[in-house]
From TrEMBL:
The keyword Transmembrane applies. GO terms for biological process: transmembrane transport. This is TonB C-terminal domain-containing protein. The keyword Plastid does not apply. Keywords: Membrane, Transmembrane, Transmembrane helix.
Length: 76
């Protein structure tokens, strides 16, 4: 099973995930859920560095690509 989807991940200053939103579905629910689950399982992320302390959130938008051979990569 393979396909592409676009996720927006919002992080708090302490590295906790505030939210994960599917911006563009792969059309396959199992892939969409796998990407969201991967983000949640990877948290918490590193806290914001001192030079980013003025921000209360960081939103990262990436395209996730599930490719044949049970592999995955991301890109801008």
């Amino acid at each position: 099973m393979y396909g592409d989807l676009r996720l927006a991940v919002t992080l708090r200053p302490n590295g906790a995930v505030e939210g994960v939103e599917i911006l563009l579905s792969s059309g396959q629910r199992v892939l969409d859920q796998a990407a969201v689950r991967t983000v949640r399982l990877a948290s918490p992320f590193a806290p914001f560095p001192a030079e980013m302390k003025q921000w209360d959130k960081l939103e990262i938008i990436r395209t996730w690509r599930f490719v044949p051979g049970n592999r995955m990569n991301t890109e801008n």
